[in-house]
Input
Amino acid sequence: MDMTAPEHLLRPIDTDAQETAEWIEALTSVIATAGPERARFLLSQLASSARAAGLNWRDARITPYINTIRPQDEPPYPGGADTIAIEERLAGILRWNALAMVVRANRAYGELGGHIASYASAADLFEVGFNHFFRARSADFAGDLIYFQPHSAPGIYARAYLEGRLDDNNLAHYRQEIAAAASGTQGLSSYPHPWLMPDFWQFPTGSMGIGPISSIYQARFIRYLEHRGLLATQERKVWGVFGDGEMDEPESLAALSLAAREKLDNLVFVINCNLQRLDGPVRGNGHIVDELETLFGGAGWHVIKLLWGSDWDPLFARDTHGELADALSRTVDGQLQTFAANDGAFNREHFFGQSPALKAFGDLLTDEEIDRLKRGGHDLKKIYAAYHAATQQRGRPVVILAQTKKGFGMGKAGQGRMTTHQQKKLELADLIEFRDRFQLPLSDTQVEHLEFYRPPADSPEMRHLHERRAALGGYMPQRISSSKNLPVPSIESYAAFALEADGKEMSSTMALVRMMGGLLKDAHLGKHVVPIVADEARTFGMANLFRQVGIYSAQGQLYQPEDIGSILYYREAKDGQILEEGISEAGAISSWTAAATSYAVHGLPMLPFYIYYSMFGFQRIGDLIWAAADQRARGFLIGATSGRTTLGGEGLQHQDGSSHVVAATIPNCIAYDPAYAYELAVIVDDGMRRMLTQQEDVFYYITVTNENEAQPSMPPESREGILRGLHRIQACDTPQLRLLGAGPLLKETIAAAALLQEHFSIQAEVWSVTSFSELARDGIACERARRLKQSEALPWVTQQIGESNAPVIAVSDYVRTVAESVRAYVPAPYVTLGTDGFGRSDTRAALRDFFEVDARWICYVALSELFAGQKTDAEWRAIADQLGLDLDKAMPSNA
Ligand SMILES: Cc1ncc(C[n+]2csc(CCOP(=O)(O)OP(=O)(O)O)c2C)c(N)n1
Output
């Protein structure tokens, strides 16, 4: 085996060892006599002298591959060695139950999947947290918040089992939620899903990267609530336990600088550096720990490397020439993994055998002792020291880079193996080896049957487990959904202008912002409203809110804004209400989720409105919205500058024709595409009532546009139709056609009806579709209920337009799929028009012609449906000419 280190890992050559020693001696003596503060000062001075001399020197940002905390700085372990022994036994039992859960499920149904190796490596990191640091929500403390690494879920269930919160039956239904429900018990979801286990999990983390970014914005949101005087912080911590592979996700790293900039010392990341991800090593040819140290340190986090266990301490103590530390620094991750997968004899030969100096270290240990040399993340004392230091840190977030072995204790079957991530079946011999490794009191038969093990209630382990959780406020994780109601103001108090618009011109965005301004002023609800933007407030006409409620900034405003003289000046304030997230949709949605779940996470309902370019919502950060839905978020997502032909000029990457397709796929997302300000008002009113009063776990997606238009007043009796998705706005005596227009294209259908009447003497009704997705959901539900003989109710759309057989033409500013979704429930010939294809930069009129959705095209399509087969080609061409349409143009979706 070639153990030669890559060139870049080698230290620069020391050309004058004596001079080096003198400098180091001088520094050591300063530390000893004048203290660390003085030593730091001198180092800073040296660095600036080096800069002044043009040395171009900077700190390498990578410290040696050893623990950050020196043994002499470690605090004593609470309860000492006896407690450590108990907790190690507990960790062994938890590992077993977690393993048994996965293997049992897969013995029964090979397709169920699950993970053993991740929790096996993370168990000790979790246990020190559970036994000493993670504080639950209690009567007088709001609780720490823990973001759990998703594929360690079996271990968290295993703990809840020992705590008596889950029973054998629950564990036997790991990944079998449907079967469990059928047999009257609660199944265990694959990963943390509050939707599926609403009393247990708080945060969905199953999609890599969501946990890290969400936890950062959660820590920030806690500060926001505190600075606005809504919630006392109580030194609460947000802990995130994540995998080193997960750090590859852009979202994992996206908000590191925000965390440091905002001095989030309420945030601790524990990164389980088992050096492996799914397929293989994270950085086989390098060090993921070093890479993360550079990234986090560079962003301003305090980095704690927790690499080696206590049994390495005597070796490092003898390492006066740094040979051991050097060798470890040179050993790349792929090689460290190979060492993890092999026994003491192998490690003696291939690691300690590299040089006579290293061999001398190896000679101090037996093969068995080498085999058992721990990595830092498996040593409770070292973990405790790191967590303790993390909780003491002030002014900066902390990351603990904990080195572990993937599949720790899985022996030849899994520890450090390339394939260990996927391992979910183990042979009996491997199971017995596992039992022996963790000294579990299980017979061979119990092992063979994969029996779950819970020690007797009066055993030291169980007593300790319960005592520690009692001392820390109770069991975790636990989700408590507060049913605190927020009073919803009357619609007239903030939206009278929309209900009685009387032809006044405004865009729906302007209307929304005006309603928000009104809600913000409400004496009771106002302070719970959280306006969120990602650097687009001015685009949406929200600049007046800068002055009205201020922009949140933890530091207040340390400068005099350039526009201080204007009424709407850019006002930042410590108690500012607007979250202005800069150009980060991922950040803004994470803030939105924190606010939208505050009712459960903090017992404090908030009402967030996140307003953004609709194209940069579901398409850009759809997975974060999906996670918010899982988390039972309640709030408003406002897709502004929406509509593929309504956002003129911006072109292909900005013009949204699809967000309503995706919104419709999220079960608890209620999506609307309103045309009028009064429709918007009714939707916002109903949304607030459902979310804040009736405590429904739904959230709203509403598209608004920047097209000014005359706003009619609200017709009587239209509320139900607006909310159910369809209401008639122009009736006629004997309609020959029904035109359905959605959102910004409603005006085109009204104009089309006028054209039909004026030029072709055809009477057409016009309907406003506020939500195709709500109509479709209703249709699906009614159809199913009818088939299953549960109800005879007709879908709303059928009831409303089912009176005649006159053709129905539906138009939306989204792809046809949106209007197509209700076809099955329209009991008449049905034609859909939409904006399939890539957007273009041009005027609204040109775009609507291009996508064939303007009044003339609607008119032409309506006529062709009405008179199908009754006119010659020449007659159709004449009609097209009359309307000014080009029948030979290319299909927009191919153009
Ligand atoms: C967005 C996303 N992509 C891929 C996956 C599939 N996946 C689950 S775990 C995993 C590897 C995780 O490695 P790491 O974070 O190092 O955790 P470990 O199991 O090694 O502790 C992958 C790729 C996922 N869950 N989410």
Q: What stands out?
A: The first helix runs from residue 17 to 34. DSSP finds 38 helices and 20 strands in the chain.
